[in-house]
Design goal:
The protein is an alpha/beta fold and 281 residues long. Helices cover 41% and strands 21% of the residues. The chain has a six-stranded parallel beta sheet with strand order 6-11-10-9-8-7. A four-stranded antiparallel beta sheet has the order 3-5-1-12, with helices on one face. α6 (176-185) packs parallel to α7 and α7 (199-208) packs parallel to α8. It starts with 8 loop residues before the first helix and ends with a strand. The model has no long low-confidence stretch (mean pLDDT 96).
Length: 281
């Protein structure tokens, strides 16, 4: 699945290289300056590929003489022992960028792979799988991109492009009605979502005019009752530790969305291998 690339790739890569290289790569300096290398990235497991642009940017920032030729693209399902790309160029910068480039590719492919599994699990229902703000610090836009590559959908990017009134906001504002009224009075140009923990709060949020209700840790029967009670007057989002083994049952209750923090929070990188052959001049 194609998705627009984030605008902060260069800055994200620059920070990653700075924390790894620091004042210089002491080990790569042991390699003769004129040495050249050719490399191949191989997948060691089935997955969804994601992160090619970050991988390329790593080597572009270190030495733009490095050439990369892809055999697969973001969003593709990949197999065990599949060749993903070939690299060629000066040996020193290839060795310097190897770890950072693979970190991006493995991490984002891991996010995309898990997103694909969740999206497949709810296929045929009305429910859409959403990510959350539980992302790795500094990788928000990259992981949100990976979620889309996997076939799931982004929730709000941050606090600036969506309103989600949670328990602490409700207490601080003086109740659900007061919180929703404050959002409307502020001229919110985005849907107003309210986290609810009981059916009574569902009723209260509906009366207050919330656009979306976040059903926090509801059981399946509670979700079904919320769907019946809401009767289409607001969208319903189920949330709260929903794993792959439960997500289908949750989707079948009739909720509109299922938000899954583990898409970006509990990342298991895909097993990839980068091996080089060395030569001179």
């Amino acid at each position: 699945m194609s998705a627009p690339l984030p605008h902060d790739i260069a800055a994200t890569v620059q920070r990653a290289l700075a924390e790894d290289i620091g004042d210089g790569d002491l080990t790569a300096a042991l390699v003769p300056a004129g040495a050249r290398a050719r490399g191949r990235v191989i997948s060691r497991e089935e997955a969804v590929l994601c992160g090619a642009a970050w991988f390329e940017e790593v080597f572009r920032q270190i030495d733009d003489a490095i050439a990369i030729h892809w055999e697969a693209q973001d969003g593709d399902g990949i197999n065990r022992d599949q060749l993903l790309c070939r690299l060629e160029g000066p040996a020193r910068p290839l060795l310097t960028g190897e770890r950072t480039a693979l970190n991006f590719l493995q991490t984002l492919s891991g996010t995309a792979t898990l997103a694909r599994r969740y999206a497949a699990a709810v296929k045929g229902t009305r429910a859409v799988v959403l990510d959350t703000r539980k992302t790795l610090p500094g990788l928000r836009s990259a992981q949100k991109y990976a979620v889309q590559c996997g076939g799931a959908t982004n929730h709000r990017m941050g606090l600036y492009d969506g309103i989600l009134i949670k328990e602490n906001h409700i207490v601080a504002a003086g109740g659900i009605r007061a919180a929703v009224q404050a959002a409307r009075a502020a001229g919110a140009k985005v849907p107003v979502e309210v986290e609810v923990e009981t059916l009574e709060q569902v009723r209260e949020a509906l009366v207050a005019g919330a656009d979306i209700l976040l059903l926090d840790n509801f059981g399946l029967e509670g979700m079904r009752k919320a769907v019946e009670l809401t009767a289409g007057r607001a969208k319903l989002e189920a949330s709260g530790g929903i794993g792959l083994t439960q997500v289908r049952a949750v989707a079948e209750t009739g909720v509109d969305y299922v938000s899954v923090g583990s898409l970006t929070k509990n990342v298991q990188g895909v097993d990839l291998s980068l091996r080089f052959e060395f030569g001179t001049g």
